[in-house]
Design a protein that fits this description.
The complex is a heterodimer of chains A (155) and B (336). Chain A is 76% helix and 3% strand. Chain A contains 8 helices and 2 strands. In chain A, a hairpin with a 4-residue loop joins strand 1 (4-6) and strand 2 (11-12). Chain B is α/β, with parallel strands linked by helices and 336 residues long. In chain B, 32% of the residues lie in helices and 23% in strands. In chain B, strand 5 (81-85), helix 3 and strand 6 form a beta-alpha-beta unit. Classes of the chains: A mainly alpha (155), B alpha/beta (336).
């Protein structure tokens, strides 16, 4: 089976070539990636839980009251390890395991902020800081509004 | 009789110009790769003492041009033209490097195929009798390319397996009417080939048809068989694209056997975790001007076909869901 339509003029058939390329495309190591994502994502959540438990016992707050301070601590850690140049090394192996937790959100804001500092505080950091996280905030807010309206109509 | 066009896409040099010098500078990661001993300078850090990666890339290119001129025993005044390019928007690395060099300059953009493109045009200008010395130079920098084409470097993303790693490096060749060294005998000008691939994380697949197209055009135009060459080197297809080129050409009756390799598979060790191999203008440039040039000078290689490959997409075209047009230019370099 040839992917060439004409051997003389050497015209490739695009759909045939795509099929051929898909067959030979390297597959991501799915099992390994899933395991990494599970372990790292799980570890970050366990750490978050430990922080929450600590704040609850030490400050004597309820679980609901602790959500804010716990998130703040985790965001700080995500930002801190991004600054040390370690979070991307973790993300290389963990994939979604380190992107989904709130530490990944911090990474997605701090990484462009660091990267675009050289273009200045306004058009660099200011404009580019939310280049990755911006869509998450926009669509997260829209979703929240829609869900809120549905809830209002149903009650 | 002067050099002439042969077939549809190729040119034959009448008095084949000499490639009298090859010079390279690479970043620290490339310096840890298997070709370490063939580079002229390995940078200790990828900022090269500058305030930004873009400035570092421009400095790398500029310093390597000076180094190549000195290695050839020439002065800046001897060089008639520099043909150079890089990957960044408006060719900023190249243009900014050139403002400190008092040499006539033509900027080229062929994405990662620019080394082959500049060699080809430089050779034609010299063989055509316009110039005595032409300089072909390109650069790429992993971090400048990454932030233009993909994500901020500190973002924790997982790279897919077909992904390649942009080389931090620059290569310069000095092309001369007379001198010593291997000679550029033939060139094949590529045409843009787009097979509808849209994934910028798999450039090897996108560029493979263009590479196969130009290689076959070269064999067809010159009447040469692939076995004529000691080494056929594509630019930066990586492992994925290389295998596709072998299969594509095989289907048309051209057998690329042990003498075919891709520059992108040579720059890094497997344990450097770059997935499908190296890419970028610098990839083929450092392999050609470092490794291959050195083997040609030592007569360990006599005849090579150097085929630079480039994907001509941009971040804007990708976001507008455009497919990736690709190109490949080839030059035959032969030692006497």
């Amino acid at each position: 089976m040839s992917v060439w339509s004409d051997r003389k003029t050497h015209q490739l058939i695009a759909p045939e070539f795509k099929k051929m390329a898909q067959k030979s495309a390297p597959k991501p190591p799915l099992a390994k990636n899933l395991l990494w994502a599970f372990l790292v994502g799980g570890a970050i959540c366990v750490l978050g839980q430990a922080v929450q438990n600590y704040i609850m016992t030490v400050w004597g707050l309820s679980a609901k009251q602790t959500a804010g301070p716990t998130s703040a601590v985790m965001v700080f850690l995500g930002a801190f390890f991004t600054g040390l140049g370690l979070y991307d090394e973790l993300g290389k192996h963990a994939g979604a395991g380190s992107i989904i937790p709130i530490t990944g959100f911090a990474n997605s804001i701090v990484a462009p902020a660091m990267e675009f500092k050289r273009e200045g505080y306004v058009f660099g950091i200011g404009a580019k800081m939310f280049v990755i996280a911006g869509p998450v905030i926009v669509y997260g807010t829209i979703t929240a509004v829609v869900i809120g309206i549905i809830k209002y109509l149903m009650s | 009789m002067l050099g002439q066009k042969i077939g549809r896409q190729s040119v034959s040099m009448h008095n084949p110009p000499y490639m009298i010098t090859g010079s390279t500078i690479v970043g620290p990661m490339e310096g840890e790769g298997p070709l370490r001993e063939f580079y002229d300078l390995v940078l200790a850090d990828d900022l090269y003492g500058e305030g930004s990666w873009e400035k570092a890339e421009a400095k790398m290119l500029r310093e390597n041009v000076k180094r190549a001129i000195a290695k050839a025993g020439l002065t800046m005044g001897d060089i008639d033209v520099i043909l150079a390019g890089d990957l960044l928007n408006q060719l900023i690395s190249t243009n900014f490097a050139m403002r400190d060099l008092d040499i006539p300059f033509l900027g080229l953009y062929g994405a990662c195929s620019t080394m082959a493109e500049s060699l080809l045009i430089g050779s034609m200008l010299v063989d055509g009798g316009f110039l005595n010395y032409a300089l072909a130079a390109v650069s790429s920098h992993h971090n400048t390319a990454e932030r233009q084409y993909r994500f901020p470097t500190e973002l924790g993303v997982q790279r897919p397996p077909a992904c390649q790693w942009t080389v931090t490096g620059t290569g310069t060749s000095v092309i001369a009417k007379t001198g010593q060294g291997p000679r550029i005998t033939y060139g094949t000008i590529g045409r843009v080939v787009d097979m509808g691939i849209t994934n910028p994380n798999d450039m090897g697949t996108a560029m493979a048809p263009a590479a196969a197209d130009t290689l076959m055009a070269h064999f067809r135009d010159t009447g040469r068989d692939p076995s004529y060459y000691d080494a056929i080197m594509t630019g930066d297809l990586g492992i994925v694209g290389r295998n596709l080129v072998i299969e594509l050409t095989r289907q048309n009756g051209f057998i690329l056997s042990k003498n075919y390799q891709d520059c992108g598979t040579l720059v890094y060790r497997e344990d450097q975790d770059v997935h499908a191999g190296a890419s970028g203008c610098g990839c083929s440039a450092v392999v050609l001007n470092g490794y291959l040039y050195s083997l040609l000078r030592r007569n360990m290689l006599k005849r090579i076909l150097f085929a630079g490959t480039g994907s001509l997409h941009s971040p804007v075209s990708y976001q507008q869901k455009e497919t990736m047009p690709c190109i490949c230019h080839a030059v035959a370099i032969e030692a006497e």
